[in-house]
Amino acid sequence: MAHLISTSCSISIPSRSNFCSKEQNIVGTKVSFASFGSQVSSFSLKKLIHRGERSQRVCTIHATTLPLTEEAKTQPSSASTNISHEGSKKKRVMIIGGDGYCGWATALHLSKKNYEVAIVDNLVRRNFDQQLGLDSLTPISSIHNRIRRWKSITGKTIDLYIGDVCDFEFLSETFKSFEPTSVVHFGEQRSAPYSMIDRSRAVYTQHNNVIGTINVLFAIKEYSEECHLVKLGTMGEYGTPNIDIEEGYITINHNGRSDTLPYPKQASSFYHLSKVHDSNNIAFTCKAWGIRATDLNQGVVYGVRTDETDMHEELYNRFDYDGIFGTALNRFCVQAAVGHPLTVYGKGGQTRGYLDIRDTVQCVELAIANPAQQGEFRVFNQFTEQFSVNELAALVTKAGAKLGIDVKTISVPNPRVEAEEHYYNAKHSKLTELGLKPHLLSDSLLDSVLNIAVKFKDRVDTKQIMPSVSWKKIGVKPKTIAA
Ligand code: NAD
Ligand code: USQ
């Protein structure tokens, strides 16, 4: 049972690379961040509670924020009591990056499905917003309030560990304390434009992502050898080759001999490259140490609502629409809602795999429920449909017309270096074979994403819509993004 140990203890988020300045320490209840000459931000941490029987170091443990009297009063809702997962012993899932877009929705989904869930997050994503003057379209509560609200509605506890997975000491303590049977690793810097702002963000992205993942691999080897790693990779690792994209591996006949080899990787940003490096490191440790891992090469995610985040406004997920963290379809819906022309980069023939956020959570659940074998490095392509940017623009234009919105499209000079007209046919059958029931991009689904955009359109800062990061102009000098 969790118990209150302090309302003002000291936690430190360790500083690494240029990104984390000396000020990036949490002292008492106040946190300050300063980096790249941009804004300084702060937030409060309240009511630190830990799991007494498991925790070993006070500084790593930071769990629910419910007042204890309120915790005792809450009961599981009827919605949650009839859902359980297989197996006599509860599976313990550590969700790294559980305060983010995919991670938050997944944490709630798995908690509702009766998994024991812990979120590990250093909250750096919220700091990027403050540094760059960005904000989610949807208002999002603090992680503490999110978890408290979840507990009050469902009676279910989500443990919380605030810290950086690049700090191995911190990560070790979370492993020893929570003893995960699965780790879902979402906790990376995930924006391609962010990684292309300047040298320091490129270095930060690769350091954060590659070192964080290596640490997770070492933690599994050291503390939890049976633990299944479910790692979020990206379809962008493959690039846009002029042949079909397979799921992870391709069989090649060469000079009379044949072998099944990792599919060639041609990533097109320092972010996407960090995922390639992760995949190589994971594959190596599966062979060398017998780690069991699933690499989910996810396409672009869209939407914001899941059954669980819909339960209360304090459970709302984030929805990025800006030129750095916003992704194509989500951006187009917001642009339509505020009367901004849809920003098609270049010729608009760029084709990618897409999926609804409700399918992200489903895919992760399927991967956990059907784990890789010890020593296996399994790769699933995680998307449900392919679209070109022009096709997305046409779909949003049609959906806008139904709502009485006259949607226009402009061709913006492409800030990226990428093929604008190309062949694209990526396989994605392995998750379907495991039972994925996709939510395809129907008119009604697009209406619902557009409706969310319309509902919150007064929160949109239209200055953040146009792209501000150029792949070709990246330089050494720290660049401050104009607010
Ligand atoms: P997000 O930025 O919303 O969430 C990432 C979370 O990880 C944030 O809460 C952040 O604070 C945390 N984090 C980052 N570095 C950390 C560290 N060193 N230690 C602890 N926590 C850390 O991103 P998202 O959109 O939820 O993406 C999650 C994962 O899925 C990423 O790995 C991303 O590459 C992958 N992915 C996302 C998409 C998409 O369309 N959003 C598509 C394909 C793959
Ligand atoms: N694009 C436009 N206009 C826009 C925004 C994007 O034309 O306003 C184009 C881009 O040039 C690109 C495509 O749309 O060709 C997709 O861009 P995106 O910003 O939606 O997605 P991307 O940068 O690839 O990254 C996102 C997530 C990342 C994830 C990746 C999956 O941020 O974490 O890894 O999707 S994938 O694209 O399959 O690699």
Mind explaining what this structure looks like?
By secondary structure, this protein is α/β, with parallel strands linked by helices. Helices cover 33% and strands 19% of the residues. A hairpin with a 7-residue loop joins strand 3 and strand 4 (41-44). The chain has one domain: NAD(P)-binding Rossmann-like Domain (Rossmann fold, 3-Layer(aba) Sandwich). The structure holds nicotinamide-adenine-dinucleotide (NAD) and sulfoquinovose-uridine-C1,5'-diphosphate. Nicotinamide-adenine-dinucleotide binds at residues 96-97, 99-103, 121-125, 164-166, 186-190, 208, 212, 232, 234, 298, 300-301, 327.
SSE map:
Elements: E1 2-6, E2 26-27, E3 30-33, E4 41-44, E5 48-51, H1 68-73, H2 78-81, E6 92-96, H3 101-112, E7 116-121, H4 124-132, H5 143-154, E8 158-162, H6 168-178, E9 182-185, H7 192-195, H8 199-223, E10 228-234, E11 249-254, E12 257-262, H9 270-289, E13 292-298, E14 300-302, H10 328-337, E15 342-345, E16 351-356, H11 357-369, E17 377-382, E18 385-388, H12 389-402, E19 409-412, H13 430-434, H14 443-455
The chain binds nicotinamide-adenine-dinucleotide and sulfoquinovose-uridine-C1,5'-diphosphate.
Sulfoquinovose-uridine-C1,5'-diphosphate binds at residues 190-192, 234-236, 272, 299-300, 327-328, 331, 343-345, 350, 352-353, 389, 416, 418.
